[in-house]
Amino acid sequence: MPTSAETIAEKQEVKGYFETTGFDRWNRIYSE
């Protein structure tokens, strides 16, 4: 089992991904 610190770090990474790459891709798809 991962420690809570590792779980938080993982969530931050996913959050960061969606706020940058994921959002950028979403923006391009829906702005056309």
Name the features.
32 residues, mainly alpha
Tell me what the structure shows.
The chain is mainly alpha-helical. Helices cover 88% and strands 0% of the residues. The protein contains one helix and no strands. It has one helix at residues 4-31. The termini are far apart. The mean pLDDT is 85.
Oligomer: single chain
Shape: rod-shaped
- Note the total helix count: 1
Number of strands: 0
- The average pLDDT value, as a whole number, equals 85
Supply Rg.
Answer: 13 Å
Strand content: under 5%
The biggest beta sheet is recorded as: none
In the predicted model, the low-confidence regions spanning at least 5 consecutive residues are none
- Distance from N terminus to C terminus (CA atoms, Å) equals 43 Å
The SSE order reads H
Helix content, binned percent: over 70%
SSE diagram, text form:
Blueprint (H helix, E strand, L loop, with lengths): L3 H28 L1
Question: Summary?
Answer:
By secondary structure, this protein is mainly α. It has one helix at 4-31.
